[in-house]
Structure formats: C-alpha cells, structure tokens
Specification:
This protein is of the alpha/beta class and about 375 residues long. It is about 35% helix and about 15% strand. Strands 5-6-4-1-7-8 form a 6-stranded parallel β-sheet, with helices on both faces. The chain has a 6-stranded parallel β-sheet with strand order 11-10-9-14-15-16, sandwiched between helices. Strands 2-3 form a two-stranded antiparallel sheet.
Length: about 375
C-alpha cells in the first residue's frame, strides 16, 4: 500500500499547483533537408533543429495533469529538467519543445512556456494564465542551485509562481536530493502524483508479494548496479536470468536459482555483444512459464540491430502476454522497449518504468529522498 499522501487526499480546487514532472526526453537532430519549422522548433536553421524522439515520459504525466484539470485546479505550473547542462543555460536543452508536444497530447489545450524558472517573467506568466491554464518553466538544471538542493532556489520558484501545493510526479528524480525534490517540500504541502503512486505501488508489489512463478531478468553493463538486485530478489524469485555485459564479462553464481548466459553472439573480434541462441531459448522457457517478470538491463548491445535479437524476443514475449505481470526497469531497457512498442501498439506491459536509477534503488530496498520528503498518508 502506498504510504504517502497523493492528489486524491487533498482538495486541489482553486489551488495553484506546482508539479515536478520528468520531461527528460530523448532528442534527435532533424534529418538533413527538413526545415526547422516543419520540426516544430520555430525559425531555427535546420542544422540546429531538434525533435523529441520519444514522448513516452510526457504521455506518462497526462493522468496527473488531467486529474488536476478535472478537479478544478486554478493554475498548473510544471517543473522539469532536460539533459545535463551542468548548471548553465544551453539552448538545445530548452524545454520549449516539450511544451509544444504536451499541448498536442492535451488535444489543443494551450501550454504556455517561459524561459525562466523564477523572477518577474515567471510571475507575469503565472498572473496572465487563465483559469485552468498550464505553464511549463524552463530547465531547472540551467542553475547549479537545483542539484545543490538550494532552499533559496526552491523559495524563488514558490514565490514567483504563488504556488499553494506541490505535487511530486517525477519518479525518475526521486533518488536525488535536489531543490525540486527535497528543499521545495519544506515550503509547501507536498503530495505524490498519480504516476509516482503507480510506479512505486507496482514496484513494491514485485518486491513484496509477486504472483509466482516470479522470474527476474538482469542485463546491462554495471555489476555494481545489478548485484544489489540479484541479492535482494534471491529469496523471492523463482528464477533469475543474468545476461548482457554482466554475463559476458564473466559474472558467476553458485545459487541454483540463478542462470547465467553461457553462449553469446560475437563480432569479428570475438567481443560478446548479445546472448546466444541457447541462452535465449532458456530465457524463453523461463518467461513463458512465469506469472510475473521483472526485467532490468538489456541483454545485448541493442543500439546495433544485429545484437538486439534477444532483447527484442523478450520484449515481444512480454508484450504479447496480457495476463502476465511484466515490469520493465532501467533507462536503457525502458527506452528500448518504448521504441519497439511505438511500432507495435498491440504490445502490452504492466509497467514500463520512467525511473532508471530511482527504480533500481527502490527495488534494491534503498531510500528515495524525493519520496521520503512527501507527507505521510
């Protein structure tokens, strides 16, 4: 059971609500010959134009925004970051593109944008918002005070927006003690959004009481990230499958529950870049027999289509079984699955987590400062 207050526990009618979202979306350059205007980026030259390559995280924020609109929030002010600008404004990491895409997803509802986070421009933008209006502020990380968890920075935002309630809906940043996840909760009543609640509830269910047989699939490159998961799930899982670079680099386990990939697809130099057909067959058998599957970490070098075979097979196996609980975690894994799901909308997953490091830390039983700071239910 979720142990923090959520939107459902407070009256938002007539309130100016500050929402921390996770709009850290992937960007890609517009193909040569396409004008910037066609890409929705205004009058910039095509050589400078970017577009959002996956709007999954923007779509994930919609239930919370729609709830606020339906329940009469006076004004909705959105906070987010994008990329790693190292505390300096960086034009290509502006959130203006996100505001444009969010307006499209909200079916034409205006989403205003201001290229500041606090100060007179923000105050004027908030004051001019109509009832039920939405305003997205500029990239929080254009200031070093965001990652420094500055209360002064948080206070400037609150004062400039006249916010009366803070909603934390950016699950992917809750493992960070930043101004927009920690300091700001000292200044406003602070509750969880619907996305945050869904992610935590689903992940905690997998940690505490999953339907069995329960299979955990571990991939990726960093043993240090995944070892806590393997250890944490050993008492609970029926089987753990280990692939990816972890297996390729020689990870071993003597526990009979743990199967480590033994064969690999290699390149011309002998580098092990995907698990092989025998390991993939073993994985398929495990997954088809499972009631719950938790997958963290791709099984090969998926950015190269030649070595994305096993991860693609697993994605389709999970997506084609709507009766199975399927949980996908980790930024690279979620991004890979999102890409396949965009081309195959019939695939269904119980949860594609928006939280990379946050999800892994929660699953490993570690505290998340951005959730701990919210009001208890």
């Amino acid at each position: 059971m979720f142990h923090k207050k959520t939107l459902r526990d407070v009256n938002v009618k007539g309130q100016i609500v500050l929402v921390r979202t996770d709009y850290n979306v992937p960007l890609e350059a517009v193909a040569e010959g396409v004008t910037a205007g066609e890409a929705g980026t205004g009058s910039r030259k095509a050589s400078e134009a970017l577009r959002i390559s996956s709007d999954f995280r923007i779509q994930a924020s919609l239930p919370t925004l729609q709830y606020l609109l339906a329940h009469g929030a006076s004004k909705i002010i959105l906070l987010s970051h994008l990329g790693r600008p190292d505390g300096r404004p960086e034009r290509r990491l502006s959130l203006r593109l996100v505001a444009e895409r969010l307006a499209e997803l909200l079916e034409g509802r205006a989403v205003n944008f201001v290229d500041e986070v606090s100060g007179p421009e923000v105050e004027m933008a908030v004051d001019s918002l109509p009832e039920g209006g939405i305003l997205l502020l500029e990239n929080l990380r254009f200031s070093p005070e965001e990652e420094a968890n500055s209360e002064d920075y948080a206070r400037e935002i609150v004062d400039s927006t006249h916010a009366e309630l803070f909603v934390q809906d950016g699950f992917a940043v809750t493992h960070r003690a930043h101004a927009s996840t920690s300091a700001i909760t000292q200044l406003l009543p602070s509750v969880a959004g619907l996305l945050l609640e869904k992610e935590v509830t689903t992940l905690e269910q997998a940690m505490q009481d999953p339907a069995h047989p329960f299979v955990v699939v571990i991939g990726g490159a960093k043993v240090s990230d995944k070892m806590p998961l393997i250890e944490h799930f050993l008492p609970l899982a029926d089987q753990i499958f280990v692939g990816g670079k972890i297996a390729a680099d020689g990870y071993t386990s003597s526990d009979p529950k743990v199967y480590v990939a033994e064969d690999f697809d290699t390149d011309s130099t002998g580098a092990k870049l995907d698990i092989g057909p025998l390991a993939t067959m073993r994985l398929t058998d495990m997954v088809q027999a499972a009631s719950t599957v938790l997958w963290a970490g791709t099984l090969g070098k998926v950015e190269d289509a030649a070595y994305a075979t096993s991860s693609t097979i697993l994605t389709e196996l999970l997506g084609e079984n709507p009766t199975q609980t399927s949980i996908i975690c980790g930024g690279d894994t979620a991004g890979f699955v999102e890409g396949i799901a965009a081309d195959k909308p019939d695939l269904h997953f119980s949860l594609i987590s928006t939280g990379g490091g946050a999800a892994l830390k929660l699953l490993a039983g570690q505290d998340l400062p951005g959730i701990d700071a919210l009001e208890d239910a």
